[in-house]
Amino acid sequence: MTTPFYVSPQQAMADRAEYARKGIARGRSVVVLQYADGILFVAENPSRALHKVSEIYDRIAFAAVGKYNEFENLRIGGVRYADLRGYTYDRDDVTARGLANVYAQTLGTIFSSAAEKPYEVELIVAEVGDGPEDDQIYRLPHDGSIVDEHGSVAVGGNADQISSYLDQRHQDGMTLAEALKLAVESLARDSNGGERSLTAEQLEVAVLDRTRPQQRKFKRVLGGQLARLLEAESAAAESDSESESPAEDTSETED
C-alpha cells in the first residue's frame, strides 16, 4: 500500500489562491470611481450581450471580472437576495453592505472547500448615497474577504498599475466627463507602460446617478451619449493644451 501524497493546508490554500489570481488577471479590467453626482463604472468589454456591470437593486450595482459563468451566477443570486429581502422587509433594508456579506460568505465557502475549485472572480458592489460621503464601494477578491474602498478601485488585468494611476489623479467632485476620461486613460495603459486607444465600441459604461428623480439610480451610458461625453472631454483637453502653448509674437520691429 502506497503512502498518500501529503500537501500542507497552508500550501494547498496558497496554490488555490494562485490559481484564482491567474484566472482573474487574464480578464479585462473594470474601473469604478466616484464623481460629483454618483458612482461611475467603466469596463473594457466589446461585447454588447455579456455584461460585466449590472444593476442589483434601486441604489446598488455590481461589477465583476473573471469567468463569466461564475460571476453571472453570483449576480443572479444577488438579485434574488435583494428582491426577497426588499419584499419581505423594506426596500431600505437592501444595502450594499448586506449584499457584500452574502457574497463574502459564498466566495469564502467555495474557496475553503477542497471538493471544488475556487471561483476565478473578483467583484465590486457599490451603493450610491444621498451625498458623496454616503457612497459605499466594496471589493471582494476570490477568497471572500471584503475591502472597503473609497474614491476609485480597479479589478482584473493589470489592476495594481491602474489603481496606482487612479490614486494619483482621482479628485473629489469630478464631473462625469472628467471621471470618464480618467477611467478610459487608466484602462488604456498596458502593463509595459504604453498606451492604447479605446473607442466607445470597446467600453461598457454605467452610472449610479443620485440626481435621477426615480427610485432606481442605475443607468447605462450608451451610443450617442457615450460618444458625446468622450468627444467633449477630448475637445476640452485640446483646448487646454492650446491655451497653455506660448502665443506667437506677431509684433513688428522697427528698423
From TrEMBL:
Pathway: Protein degradation; proteasomal Pup-dependent pathway. GO terms for cellular component: proteasome complex. Signal peptide: none annotated. Keywords: Cytoplasm, Hydrolase, Proteasome. It holds the Pfam family Proteasome. The formation of the proteasomal ATPase ARC-20S proteasome complex, likely via the docking of the C-termini of ARC into the intersubunit pockets in the alpha-rings, may trigger opening of the gate for substrate entry. Interconversion between the open-gate and close-gate conformations leads to a dynamic regulation of the 20S proteasome proteolysis activity. Residues 239-255 have a biased composition (Acidic residues). It is found in: Cytoplasm. One of its GO terms (molecular function) is hydrolase activity. It comes from the Bacteria. Its main location: cytoplasm. InterPro entries: Ntn_hydrolases_N (IPR029055), Proteasome_alpha (IPR050115), Proteasome_alpha-type (IPR023332), Proteasome_asu_bac (IPR022296), Proteasome_sua/b (IPR001353). Belongs to the peptidase T1A family. Component of the proteasome core, a large protease complex with broad specificity involved in protein degradation. This is Proteasome subunit alpha. It comes from Streptomyces lonegramiae. The lineage of its organism: Bacteria, Bacillati, Actinomycetota, Actinomycetes, Kitasatosporales.
